[in-house]
Amino acid sequence: MNAGVERVRGGPLVVGVDGSEPSLRAVDWAADEAELRGVPLRVVYACLWERYEGAALARDLAEPTALPLAQDVVGAAAQRARARHPGLQVTTDVVFEEPEYALVHEARHASALVVGTRGRSGIAEMLLGSVSLAVAAHADCPVIVLRGSHDNQATPPVHGRVVVGVGEDAKESAAVRFAAEEARRRGVPLEAVRAWRCPAHETTDHPLLAGEPARLHEERAAEELEAGLEDLPAGVDVHRRTVEGHARRVLVDASHRADLLVVGARRREGHLGLQLGRVPHAVLHHSACPVAVVPHGGHDA
Question: Which CATH architecture has domain 156-301?
């Protein structure tokens, strides 16, 4: 088991491309991240329809069209990554498969997976592509979705901090460990955030005790936050924050001053297959910065 974990951690950083401008911006960010990690960058283009439509065109025109077009996409992306980091090892692959399935398969051997968004207008930028959402919901490795205005770069830092949401399963949180390593690599502080709420009925039982339940909830949140940070590696500058409010809103607010927002995801079985929880789903749609979704071990029933 441990050997397998180490193999994946040392695996390549995978970036999914499709020839769009958002995916090329994702290549820039992924190249920076691979350089930070000291791992190869693997550029993957996946498209099922080209297997069939490209083959039909090839028969009509008596020349192979689909594969060269796909190779042009990954070739341009690889050239862009090498120009950004000349010493970076870059490999490419073209997979004639549905993108979400191909990228989830790639995640089995990757240290992390990077995907962009497909928004091309102000309204579209607020929406998350179905491929990005499906990959974040199913991949075995951390998935980094490039939300918001990330300036095409992982380094140098723009805001100078990594933010991680510390949830109820803090002691088992792979997200906290992932976020700590990301902050360490960048040389920036880690902001660990624990959201808390006081149920309305607890503050109205007696006027003289109105503030007491809230104080107890805040103290409990601080204790849970501290428990979640017990196993942090040395050398990470940690800023602790407990904030009253829904976790979704608290983390989206925090994303406006972060270079990377990290959340954990314990997948749940639903009638449509594995589903993300409400918090990662919300931040993936509304974050102002890139979001790393880090899977917990196992799945909730």
Answer: 3-Layer(aba) Sandwich (3.40)
